[in-house]
Amino acid sequence: MNVGGGFEPIMKPSQILVANIGSTSFKFRLIEMPSERQLASGGIERIGSNEAPFELRIGDEPKQKGTGSFPDYATAISFVEKSLGGFDNLAAVGFKPVGARNVSGTQFMDESVLKAMEAFNTLLPAHNPPYIAGVRLFNKLYPDIPCIGTFETAFYDDVPMENRRYPIPLEWESKYGIRRYGFHGASHRFVTQRCAELMGRKDLRIISCHLGGSSSIAAVVNSKAINSSWGMTPQSGLPQNNRVGDFDCFALIYLARDLGLGLDVVEKALCSQSGLKGMSGLPTGDIRDIVAAAGSGNEDARIALNVFTGSVRKFIGQFLVEMNGADAVVFTAGIAENSPELRARICDNLGFCGLELDQELNAGTRASETIISTSSSKIAVWVIPTNEELIIARNAWAKISEGK
After folding, report:
1. pTM for this entry
2. Which CATH architecture does the domain made up of 15-150 adopt?
3. pLDDT tens, 357-368?
C-alpha cells in the first residue's frame, strides 16, 4: 500500500475536512474556505479488511488508487492524514450527523451532543453508532481540531407545526419527542439554493427530489422547507434501497406479536430486507439491477419500480396542492441524476399542472446541471447534482467564524 504518494503537502490554514462515516467506510472532501475550492477527495471502503479499496484525488485528478489493509478507522484516518500532508493547519472537521434528541442545527460535536445522538440509536441504528464512534475517534486523536456537525434535520427546523405533528397523544410529542423530523437536509438545501441561483430569484416554490440509495422529497418555499416525505426516522417516507419506507405500525405489531416473529426479526427485516430489495425479491435494492430485471420480464421488479415512482408522484402531488403549484422540480442524487427513464416515469402525465418534460433533453442528461423541461413548461424541471459536503463546509466555517 503506497501511503503518501510522494507529493507536496496541500494543507493550508482555513480548510475544512468534510468526513462522511459509514459502518465500514470513510469518505472525505478537503475544501478550502472561504473560496469553496475543493482541494482533494477520496475514501476507503470495507474498513476491517486486508483488501480494502482506497482512492485519493487531488482536485479532480486521481492520485492514488488500490487496496490495502485497514483494520480500523484509526488506520484509515491516519492514511488520509499522511496522504494529505498532515492535519496541522486544519481549521475543522465537518460532519453530517443524522439526528439527536433535542439537538439540531450546526453544533460542536462534544460529548453532550454525542450523548444526545446516542439517545436516538434505536431510531437511527444504521447511522448514529458509526458516526458517534468516528467523531469520538477524531476528538481523541486531534483534540485541538474542532469537530463540527450540521444535522440532517437542520433544514427542517422551521417547518410548520402542522407538518411535524403525528395524530398521537400530545404527551408523546412533548415528553418523548415523537414527531416528524426530516433528513437529507444538506442535499435539499444545496440544490434548492442552486436552483434559485440558476433561475435568478428566491421567491420560488420548489419540489426537491433526492432519489438515491435512500430517497426523500422536500417542499421548499422562499428557500425554507415547509414539508418533507420523511417521518421520524429514515425508515419512513419513500421506499428505500433496502429499508421499508411508510408502513402500517399495526402490521408490525401483528407480525411481531400475533404471528410470533418477534420484534428483533421484524426490525431487521424492515431495516435491511425491505424497500426495493424486498419488493423485487432480488439480492440487492440497486435501482439499476431492478430496472434491468424489470426489462427482462421480472414482474416483481416491475411492480417495485411502480411502487417507488408512484410514491414519489404521491408526494409531488401532495406538495403541489400544499404550495398551490410549483415553480420548479429538482432531481438530485444517484438515481435521479442518472436515470432518465425514472425521471420520465415520475413526470409522466403531469400536463394538468403545466409540467412538460423535454424528452430529448431528459434522455441526454446524466449527472450534469441541466434544465430538462420544455421552453413552454410552466414548471421548470432541473437535474442538479448535489453537493452536501459544500453545505457542511460552509456551516462549519461559519461556526468557527462566529468565535473569531
Report:
1. 0.91
2. 2-Layer Sandwich (3.30)
3. 999 999 999 989
